[in-house]
Structure formats: C-alpha cells, structure tokens
Here is the input.
Amino acid sequence: MQVSINVNGEQRSHEVEDRTLLVHYLRDTCGLTGTNIGCDTTSCGACTVLLDGESVKSCTVLAAQADGHEVTTIEGLADGETLHPMQRAFQREHGLQCGFCTPGMVMAAVSLVAENPNPTEADVRSGLEGNLCRCTGYHNIVQAVLAAVREKSGATE
Here is the structure.
C-alpha cells in the first residue's frame, strides 16, 4: 500500500506492506535510526515519536495509520545545529548514560511539557512512566525535564 507521511517537516511517500510498523518505516525506509527498537511490546518507550504532536510508541502504530499525518522523530527536534531545549537540558543535566532510551525519553518529555507546560516533579515522573531507562535511576532525567521547563519560562535556577 502507498503511504504519505510528513516526517520531520518533509513529505515522504513510499510503498509499504500493510503490516509495516511505524518504527520500521522510520528506521528502514526513511533511514531515521534515532528512533530505537527496544521491545516491540510498548513496554520500554525507546521508539517514542510524536504523531500529530502527541507521543506514541511507534512499535504499536502501523505506518498505514500514520498515512496523512505528521510524525516528528528525535532527528526532527533540532533546528539545524541548534538543539531543542529538551535536548539541551538532557545534555546539560546528564539525563542519559548509555543513550539507548534517550530519544524516546526526550520525545515523551516534549509531549508531556506541551500538554502540561508547568509540571511538578511528580507530574514528570508520572508522565514518563511508560519509558524505561535501565541505567540512570531517573533522577537526572526528571531534572532535565524540569530544567527545560525553567529554560522555556525564562526562570533561572
């Protein structure tokens, strides 16, 4: 079947099998390997992307379901060489270790802050509970999200 998906601001049209998962479409067809495959069961969140601005686990969405929609991957957040505020905060606050979960975590955090522009620490922890990190213990991830919120609001620490 033919799909036409706006990926990171670029219209892409490809022939795919009906059963092609969005994560495989992004990685294998579009060559956007920042979206990771961790579990294929929605358990880890490594494949989180934005579908029309809302976070989804792309291992549970068919490419056909994204037909006619807008998808943003981790590669689409930066503005050229300028990192997105959430990406900068993860870097600055050491919100990563091995980096495997980081793209999905950042995408989920971007969606969370879009829905709740002033989250508490508890809100961040709750909002990211569908994304697993096997390395950090989450403290620095939560601090990174809160730092990005402060940066966006112009608040200083």
About this structure: The chain has a mean pLDDT of 95. The first strand starts at residue 2 and ends at 7. Strands lie at 2-7, 10-15, 48-51, 54-57, 70-72.
